[in-house]
Structure formats: structure tokens, C-alpha cells
Design brief:
Blueprint (H helix, E strand, L loop, with lengths): L12 H20 L8 E5 L3 H14 L4 E6 L9 E4 L2 E4 L5 E2 L3 H10 L11 E4 L4 E4 L4 H12 L2 H16 L1 H7 L7 H15 L5 H7 L4 H15 L8 H11 L3 E2 L7 H9 L3 E4 L1 E10 L2 E10 L2 E7 L1 E4 L11 E3 L12 E13 L16 E4 L9 E4 L18 E7 L5 H7 E16 L11 E3 L2 E3 L10 H19 L11 H8 L1
Parallel strand pairs: 1-2, 1-13, 2-9, 6-16, 10-14, 13-21
Antiparallel strand pairs: 3-4, 5-8, 6-7, 10-11, 11-12, 15-18, 15-19, 16-17, 17-18, 20-21
Helix pairs in contact: 2-11, 2-13, 3-11, 5-10, 8-10, 9-10
Length: 506
């Protein structure tokens, strides 16, 4: 069943107006009686990892009596998606999760899911002419080669990333104690002071050079990692760069059966009402000083609307990607500056052309992952020999001379000639175009979390850094913020010196 009042397909204007009036009166009555009462209905727009996480956290804080409607125009999971090749599913979207992502770890335990068995493989960085950086089976040899070519840069990078992540991990402690933040700047400042806020305004290249990391190491290694994760250059902000580099240092995992199972599992657990519809507008209503919202949507039956005490937008508002209009807001909710970066993911089932990489005998090609430097000759950002989402105990990775499934990231759809350069032959190519993350050079402005009383923009966090981890953290923050503001618990919002406060609480 779809949310909202039942309606005949050809309802008259009078009946529609009457239904709206009844909805307004009910919502007004709920708003007027709010006091210490929980909200009656909450809408979440978007069922990706952010939307499904925030639905779970909202129910966790407000209680199971709150009705949760989750609107999704496409499929549950959003950018956590899979494609099918030969009756096996493969990750085409967000493929890996950092081990320090404590919310995702909790979700997996809560839902009875499992970590996917890891299948080892080696990586290398390709310049278009040769491999400038290669991984071997021997850890000490890898370290020696890094030291030989780049001096102390590798260790300095590790120290820089670890310092950022150590401070970032404070967010889990803050959230466990119920603290929330009304602005991204407040959240970042609570973790790392002015330095963290400044990291959203300066490039990762500038920060790394300041940390004593050699330009050659940045050109060979850092560029390759950022091209693989964001499809962008070393001009991305330092904070976003640090999150990407943390993932490149290993300790990554995935969910057996597909990462999207976390999203569908959380929505099922919360008994959320998932509405397959496109949200077109949000109208603000007021009664006795209380705000409530009318969410307008289109589904296969036509147009409809429903009323809510709280609305969380867990989809992109930038670049007019959502086409949601905001009505009756004074002052109006302005458009956000900045655009989103397009990444093309091609899932190719075929035989690798190892000679393109300088290996005439495909049996000798040793790498399962190839990253690339910023070279005009290169038409792809990265490619990986990927495993299915269900990895059995007897599974073995395909040998380089065998037909395998490769995931290729590029800036544009690969032309036939480009596919022939990478593959001797292929059985199938499945292409997905992702608005994967912000185009960070298009704007350094951090968008608001609160758009209006009880109207929240969860995906604003992507402009600090875009990852599964950041989405889950933002979901918890929005749920806590909505809860604290609903019950006027201002002592739990934007508090200073939280580490000291938490120690004194204990």
C-alpha cells in the first residue's frame, strides 16, 4: 500500500481539496499536541545507505510507534548496487567498507549478515606506458621498494592518515552519548578543531606537501588512489582525500550477498513503509507556531501527497538531481552551488588483453587491480578483477588467461576501440552511470544540515567527504539532531569540548 489518503484515479478537484484540508487539520492537531509526545509520522526521501540508516536510527530514538515512510524512486540500496553476470551478482556501486566504520559493523551483526570472504590479489599503478608502482606477495619487499623510490613519504602518509582517522573516530563516542551537530562545520570542529574545518577548504595536495610527502609519491600513488575512488585529481579537499586514502591502506571488507543487503535489511527491521515513488515537492504548513510538511509524490497511479512532522532528505539536492521543489518557505530554500561528478562503471566479462600492459603472455600478468596516473593517454581510472558477492569456500579467482569479470571505472562510456585495447575479446558489457560524488572543485561550500524546522538534508555530508562511512555517521547525526530538537534538549546539540564533557559524565 502507498502512504497517504486513498484516492480514485480521477478524483475531482473538490475531493482532492477536501482530502488536503483533512490532512492539514490532522497534522495541525498533531503539531499542536506535540509537547513531549513523539512525532506521529516521519518521511525519509531516499533508500540508499543514508536513508535506510537514518530510518533505523530514527526508530531507535523515537520508538516503534512512529510511522516511517521511505520514498524511493529507483531501487533500495541506491549507490550500493549489483549487476548479474552468468547468474552471479557483482558489486557495481559501493564495493567496500572500512573496518573502522562502526555503524556498518553494528548493522551487519544486528541483521545477522556476514563479512564476505576475502580473496587475495595484487595491485599496481599504470602510467599508460609502464607500471610505476607494483605490489608483491612480500610485505617487507613492498616497504623496501616504497622507501627506495619515495624515501619516508609512505610512512609520513600513513602517519598523516592515522592522525586524521584517530580524531574522526571520536564521532562514534559522541554519538553513543547522544550528542549531535546542526552544521557540518560544528561536527568537524568537534573532531579536529579548526584544522578539520580548514581541510574542507584546501586541497589534499597542499596538505600532503606540508606533511613532507614528496611530489613524486603524490603523482604516482596519491593521484592513482583518488582517481580510483573519486575519479578526480589531487585538488579534492584534504578531508575528502584523507577518507579516500584511509580506505586505500587496507582493512576493507564487504557484505556476503552484497552490500545493498544492509539497506533492505534495515528497512525490513524497522518495518518502514517503502513507497516506490518520485518526490516532486515539499510544502511547508504552520499551525500555532509548529511546522509540518506535505510531501508530494508521483507513482504509477498518479499524483499523491501525505503529511509529516519530520522530513529527512537522503538524496542529492545539488545540481537539480532530485527535482524537488520547496513551497511556502519564507525565506525560500535556495539552490546549492556545485555539481556532481559522473563516473562510468563498466562490468566486462571477457579475456584481459595483457599485452596492453606490457605482458605478451597473459599467464604472467600478476595483478587483479590496476590503478592509473593522470596521463592524457589513459581513458580509464581503474580496473579490478572482481569476485561475486557470494564467495564460497571453494571459490578461486580466475587466472589471467581465463575469462573473468572486470569492473572498469572511467570518465566516459568506453568506446569499442577502447574495450578492444583492454580486452582480447568479451562476452558482455554492462554500463552504469553514477553521480558518484560531488565534483569537489565546483564548490567548497558546506551545505546546511537543517533546511527548516524538522526538515533535514542528510546528503550535505558528501561535500565534506563521500563514502559509506560518512553516510552512516551523517544518518546517526541527523536522527540524534531530530530527536534532540523535537524534545528541545539543546544541551545535546553543538556542545564544545565534548571529549572533556564525556570524561566528566563517566
Amino acid at each position: 500500500m502507498m502512504a497517504g489518503s486513498p484516492r480514485p484515479p480521477r478524483a475531482s478537484r473538490l475531493l482532492v481539496s477536501l482530502a488536503v484540508a483533512v490532512g492539514v487539520m490532522r497534522a495541525a492537531s498533531s503539531a499542536a499536541a506535540a509537547g513531549d509526545a513523539p512525532p506521529g509520522k516521519i518521511a525519509v526521501i531516499g533508500a540508499g545507505i543514508g536513508g535506510s540508516s537514518v530510518a533505523h536510527f530514527l526508530q531507535q530514538h523515537f520508538g516503534p510507534q512512529v510511522q516511517l515512510d521511505v520514498y524511493e524512486k529507483d531501487t533500495v540500496g541506491g549507490r550500493l548496487a549489483t549487476v548479474t553476470v552468468n547468474k552471479q551478482q557483482y558489486e557495481s556501486g559501493g564495493a567496500s567498507i572500512h573496518s573502522l566504520n562502526l555503524h556498518m559493523q553494528d548493522f551487519v551483526k544486528l541483521l545477522g549478515l556476514k563479512h564476505r570472504r576475502e580473496v587475495a590479489g595484487k595491485s599496481a599503478v599504470f602510467s599508460g606506458e609502464q607500471f610505476v608502482l607494483v605490489e608483491t606477495d612480500w610485505y617487507l619487499l613492498n616497504l623496501f621498494r616504497l622507501w627506495w623510490h619515495y624515501g619516508m613519504s609512505f610512512l609520513r602518509l600513513q602517519m598523516w592518515v592515522e592522525e586524521v582517522m584517530e580524531k574522526f573516530m571520536r564521532i562514534y563516542k559522541y554519538q553513543a552519548h547522544g550528542y549531535s551537530f546542526s552544521r557540518l562545520e560544528e561536527l568537524l570542529h568537534s573532531l579536529g578543531g579548526d584544522a578539520f574545518v580548514n581541510m574542507t577548504q584546501r586541497s589534499v595536495a597542499e596538505s600532503l606537501l606540508e606533511a613532507g610527502i614528496a611530489q613524486r609519491f603524490i603523482d604516482d600513488a596519491i593521484v592513482a588512489i583518488l582517481r580510483a575512488s573519486y575519479g578526480q585529481s589531487i585538488l579534492v579537499p584534504a578531508f575528502a582525500g584523507a577518507m579516500s586514502l584511509a580506505g586505500a591502506q587496507g582493512n576493507m571488507w564487504a557484505v556476503e550477498g552484497g552490500n545493498k543487503l544492509v539497506c533492505s535489511g534495515l528497512l525490513k527491521l524497522t518495518k518502514a513503509n517503502v513507497i516506490q515513488a518520485t518526490v516532486t515537492a515539499i510544502t511547508l504548513h504552520n499551525s500555532e507556531g509548529k511546522s509540518f510538511y506535505q510531501v508530494h509524490y508521483e507513482d504509477e497511479e498518479g499524483q499523491g501527497s501525505s503529511f509529516y512532522d519530520i522530513v529527512v532528505i537522503a538524496t542529492q539536492l545539488h545540481d537539480k538531481k532530485s527535482n524537488i521543489t520547496f513551497q511556502n518557505f519564507d525565506p525560500p530554500i535556495s539552490e546549492f552551488p556545485g555539481t556532481f561528478h559522473t563516473t562510468i562503471t563498466s562490468i566486462v566479462h571477457g579475456y584481459l588483453n595483457s599485452s596492453y600492459f606490457g605482458f605478451s603472455d597473459p599467464k604472467l600478468f600478476p595483478f587483479t587491480s590496476v590503478l592509473t596516473t593522470d596521463s592524457p593517454a589513459l581513458f580509464f581510472n581503474s580496473m579490478d578483477n572482481i569476485c561475486p558477492v557470494n564467495v564460497s569456500g571453494t571459490f578461486r579467482r580466475k587466472q589471467p588467461q581465463e575469462a573473468a569479470v572486470w569492473r572498469v571505472h572511467s570518465q566516459h562510456p568506453l568506446e569499442k576501440q577502447e574495450l578492444k585495447m583492454l580486452f582480447r575479446s568479451y562476452y558482455s558489457v554492462q554500463v552504469t552511470e553514477w553521480q558518484a560524488c560531488p565534483s569537489y572543485e565546483s564548490s567548497r561550500t558546506l551545505p546546511p544540515i537543517i533546511l527548516h524546522d524538522h526538515l533535514y538534508y542528510l546528503n550535505s555530508v558528501e561535500w565534506a567527504a563521500s563514502s559509506v562511512e560518512m553516510a552512516a555517521v551523517a544518518a546517526k547525526n541527523v536522527a540524534l539532531l531530530a530527536y534532540n530538537l523535537w524534545y528541545h534538549d539543546l544541551d545535546k546539540i553543538d556542545q564544545k569540548d565534548l571529549m572533556h564533557k564525556i570524561k566528566t559524565e563517566l
